[in-house]
């Protein structure tokens, strides 16, 4: 474990200088983390702090699951360093997402929506409820995370869902939430909430097209399972 202060390290062996000299692909994970952390603290180099972060995981791929709390438990890593590190991880995830811009895609099937949003829930340990607001062509105008926690009717309030629909001039709404357990079978609460929202959508003239539950490598669509009917008798999902 290298605790030599960076300023005492030979210039060409410092993390930033190594990246410039050898290229980003040829520096160690420890050095990359040290660069993100920027500085250490008295008696603790940024490399030392980087090595402490790596001790928390079995492999670099497990860094995606690291939490703010775990990072801040390391002596020498305060809130600012921890937040900077998590932000860098999230930016990297977004940069390397392979799906095209969702706003150019017609969201007319649960499978399409699942493919775009499954990675968003991959590491979530809590249920997250999103509303997707669509235009007349069923293309995305905006998406909104409305709550994070245990799904129940006291936290998924129709007022918030439809308020955002009016603010975005949405023609349709699709709801999405995840089941961290991986089991996509809808709970009684899921069914009650979906029925309530679809009824309100009819009254407000902003139909709920679907409510999709995302699990581990699969999904459940209320529309595909006939819990939600067509918007009207003349319109087909197309």
Quick synopsis:
The chain is built from 8 helices and 5 strands. It is of the alpha+beta class. It has 2 domains: 6-95, Orthogonal Bundle (DNA polymerase, domain 1); 102-221, Cytidine Deaminase, domain 2.
Describe the structure.
There is one protein chain. The chain is elongated. Helix 1 packs across helix 2 (about 30-35) and helix 2 (about 30-35) crosses helix 3 (about 45-55). The protein has helices at about 15-20, 30-35, 45-55, 70, 80-95, 110-115, 160-165, 190-205; strands at about 125-135, 140-150, 170-180, 210-215, 220. With about 240 residues, it is α+β, with helices and mostly antiparallel strands. Helix content is about 35%, strand content about 15%. Strands 2-1-3-4-5 form a 5-stranded mixed β-sheet, sandwiched between helices. It folds into 2 domains: about 5-95, DNA polymerase, domain 1; about 100-220, Cytidine Deaminase, domain 2, CATH 3.40.140.
Which short descriptors sum up this protein?
2 domains, Cytidine Deaminase, domain 2, elongated, alpha+beta, 238 residues
């Amino acid at each position: 474990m290298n605790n030599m202060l960076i300023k005492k390290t030979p210039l060409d062996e410092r993390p930033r200088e190594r990246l410039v000299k050898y290229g980003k692909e040829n520096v160690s994970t420890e050095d990359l983390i040290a660069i993100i952390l920027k500085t250490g603290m008295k008696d603790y180099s940024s490399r030392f702090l980087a090595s402490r972060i790596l001790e928390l995981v079995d492999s670099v791929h497990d860094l995606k699951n690291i939490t703010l709390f775990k990072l801040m438990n390391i002596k020498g890593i305060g809130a600012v360093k921890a937040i900077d590190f998590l932000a860098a991880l999230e930016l990297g995830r977004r940069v390397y997402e392979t799906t095209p811009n969702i706003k150019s895609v017609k969201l007319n099937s649960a499978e399409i929506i699942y493919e775009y949003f499954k990675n968003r829930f991959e590491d979530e340990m809590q249920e997250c409820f999103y509303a997707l607001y669509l235009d007349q062509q069923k293309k995305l105008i905006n998406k909104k995370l409305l709550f994070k926690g245990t799904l129940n009717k006291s936290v998924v309030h129709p007022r918030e869902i439809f308020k955002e629909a009016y603010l975005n001039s949405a023609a349709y709404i699709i709801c999405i939430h995840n089941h961290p357990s991986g089991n996509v079978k809808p709970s009684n609460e899921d069914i009650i909430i979906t029925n309530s929202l679809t009824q309100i959508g009819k009254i407000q003239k902003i139909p709920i097209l679907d409510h999709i539950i995302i699990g581990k490598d699969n999904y459940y669509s209320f529309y595909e399972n006939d819990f939600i009917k067509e918007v009207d008798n003349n319109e087909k999902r197309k």
